[in-house]
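Data availability (excerpt). The following record was deposited with the supplementary files.
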Amino acid sequence: VQLQASGGGLVQAGGSLRLSCAGSGRSFSHCAMGWFRQAPGKEREFVAAISSGSINTNFADSVKGRFTISRDYAKNSVYLQMNSLKPEDTAVYYCVADQRTRLTWTFWGQGTLVTVSS
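Predicted structure:
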């Protein structure tokens, strides 16, 4: 079972990036998927989540109104659209699947680095 994240890179403040995460080895259609991030020298933090069936979404206060989350069930994937990026959004972003609690998820992908320059 694997979650493969991609789409990170270097962007100027105010710009946009779209992160993708493709699942393999099993279907994630019946579980929640989401994103966490870890900035240099800081603890890993929750960013966003989307429920099975895409009925509910949840965002960290720091990204509300700027980030959206979506998923493609045919591709077993989840996406994070990041707009109006700020330097403080710089972090390694991790996709996750199968939520147990807000901070506890069964599956974690490898990270993809997002760097926002000022």
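Summary of structural features: The chain has a mean pLDDT of 96.
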